[in-house]
Amino acid sequence: MTHRIVVTATDTDVGKTIFSAALVGALDGIYWKPVQAGIDGGTDSETVRRLSGLSPDRILPEAYQLETPASPHLAAAIDGVTIDPHRLVPPSVDRPLVIEGAGGLLVPLTPDYLTADLFARWKLPTILVCRTSLGTINHSLLSIEALRARAIPILGIAFVGDAHEENERIIPALGKVRRLGRLPRLDPLDAPALAAAFRQAFDVKDFAA
Fold it and tell me: Mind giving me the DSSP string for 58-117?
């Protein structure tokens, strides 16, 4: 089995998908988002395909693609779909696999099964994507506690946003986790710019098996 990494975040719209695109591109790997909730305006898989520069065959189909933009448990109920967490098994592939979760750690996949429960079952190295802006200390440290409470391996923290020296220092220090780097805001945001920003901000060896 090749190296597999889970990417989660402190919240929705943190920049997790953009980071996942940069990471899977840097690793020349394969991307999988098990559950997609909300398809209006495009899916996260489509975004990763566009920003990673990878060929379409490196973007695996979702196990569940839900139309309603909501928490997966609610989106599934509205769409008339039953999510079976036991169907969510990381596939066997011949390259590094980047798996992107839906929303934050405590987002429910079903009324009685959290995203964190799934990650606890997998026990794969997990990256926590965090904002740099106001409120990130609380959300980040609570997310670190949620990971540790379930014995989910923490590979490190990846920040996304404008530089904030103190937030980027205090969160890894208090959480006792590694700071992997910070992906800045990019304008324009395209595959070459994202790849260049990732190379400058991160060391790809930190993500190796």
Answer: GBPPPSEEESS-S-HHHHHHHHT----GGG--PPP-SS-EEEEEEEETT-EEETTEEHHH
Residue 149: its H or E element: helix 136-149
Interior angle at CA 52, CA 50 and CA 54, nearest 5: 90
pTM: 0.96
pLDDT for 1 beyond 50: no
> Is 33 noted as a catalytic residue in this protein?
yes
The Cα–Cα gap between 76 and 96 comes to: 29
Q: How far is the C-alpha of 121 from the C-alpha of 166, rounded, in Å?
A: 34
Out of 33, 123, 176, 205, which one is annotated catalytic? 33
Residue 103 in contact with residue 71, Cβ under 8 Å? yes
Comparing 103 with 142, the larger pLDDT belongs to 142
